[in-house]
Amino acid sequence: MNRCIIKEVSTLTENDCFAIFPRLKDNLDAPMHFHSNFELSLIFNGSGAKRIIGNHEGTVNNLELILIGPNLHHAWLTDKCCNKNIYEVVVQFHKDLFDKKLLYRNQLVHIKNMFENAQRGILFSEETAVKVADRIANLNKHSGFESAFELFSLLYDLSTSKNSILLSDQGYVCSDKNQLNEKMDKVFDYLNENFGKQITLFEIAYRFNMSGSAFSRLIKKWTGMTFVNILNEIRVAHATKMLINSTDTISEIAYQCGFNNLSYFNKIFKEKKKVGPKQYRKNYTMA
Predict the structure, then answer these.
(1) Spatial distance between the Cα atoms of 174 and 172, rounded to a whole number of angstroms
(2) Number of Cβ atoms within 10 Å of the Cβ of 150
(3) Which pairing describes strands 56-59 and 74-77: parallel, antiparallel, or unpaired?
(4) Who wins on pLDDT, 253 or 280?
(5) 151 φ, ψ to 5°?
(6) Based on CB atoms within 10 Å of each CB, which residue in 3, 19, 117, 169 is the most buried?
């Protein structure tokens, strides 16, 4: 498969156990990509679309649930799907969510085995997907420890479910350089921790012992995005959380997320979320 493969910009921070991204789409076309986190992907109304997981290619059913391991290349393509109301819920969580010693305890052996199998991609049965779909879709309605507990419970139930299928071949290995993966992960961690500050490309390049031009080329090749686009993506993701979880004004949130110009914040937010911040907050309140 001769496809461009990029590293996804994840907005999952070190301070959160997981992040959930519900999306209503009219197509599934996106570049082949990978990231350093686990990803649980639930797709409604995707019948006829194409899935690519590692070196596996297959056709999406109307309801589909897949667990993808860290750094495993994957993509979903519209292909023969005619539905314009595709609903996707993506849950990302850290690869070290469970301590290794904890995973080897008897009570968690099923989760350990599931995580190992996720390196090839796991397609859960339709029966399992039906049983857990509402729980996944409603994860963002929980908060604090309750949300973490629900995720742990969900993962355990998935690990003991029947008739799942491993997708990519046993011998398939990602060709990415681990050292470069680690460096890019550190870059994204830094941006997620400092998104509210004024950050320049040259400052980040210097911090990671690179010239500005070399860093710019690397990040474009690795993510398919410019540095400014990546930073805006991360800032908008944090702004959505603040719009939902706080009563701060939109201008206060814009400033806290590193935008010094409210008009520019509104413009970038609408580009990323298809609605402005005011409407986004209203839509979530009404949901």
Answers:
(1) 7
(2) 17
(3) unpaired
(4) 253
(5) -65, -45
(6) 19
